[in-house]
Amino acid sequence: MAEPFVNDDVLHLACGICPSRRLPVGEFDVWVRPTRDCPFSPADGYRYAPDGTPVCVHPDRVGLPVARYKSEKAPLTVEVHLPPDPSELVSYLHDLLYGAAPVLLDGLISQATAEIRRQFPDLDPLTVLRRAMS
Fold first, then answer.
1. Prediction pTM value
2. Residue 55 exposed, middle or buried by CB count within 10 Å (0-12, 13-18, 19+)
3. What is residue 3's predicted lDDT score, i.e. its pLDDT?
4. Is residue 12 within 8 Å of 18, Cβ to Cβ?
5. Nearest Cα to Cα of residue 22 among 65, 54, 52
6. What is the dihedral of CA 78, 111, 25, 74, to 10 degrees?
7. Which of 22-31, 56-65, 89-98, 111-120 is modeled with the greatest confidence?
8. CA atoms within 13 A on the CB side of 10
9. Any residues with CB less than 8 A from the CB of 62 and at least 6 apart, and which?
10. What is the greatest pairwise CA distance in the chain?
11. Does residue 120 contact residue 92 with C-beta atoms inside 8 Å?
12. Is 132 strand, coil or helix?
């Protein structure tokens, strides 16, 4: 069995009953919020979509974009949208990277590096990213 997305990290923001604590990315969907369409199951603590897919209802807590990863085989992607003001870069990237799922970090760092070079050619991407992650 694949490793759970949130692997025994008691400090992670994911709820204690979130499927991300027991299932790998791709084995559950992420919805915007709880709804009657994904009721809580007291049998195992998950919420389920009508088709039986486990559902996380707090995307901001797990660091994953809303998508039907299991039920529709949605790809796991996130896009970097840098702020227009370079003085906001470090703060934006800090929040983006610290709030992202670990499986997204390599892609986000690559995108951020390319976008910093494109949008702010006078800045060193490595320096900006180091400041954002320190």
1. 0.72
2. buried
3. 65
4. no
5. 54
6. 50
7. 111-120
8. 0
9. 5, 6, 13, 14, 18, 20, 30, 56, 101
10. 56
11. no
12. helix
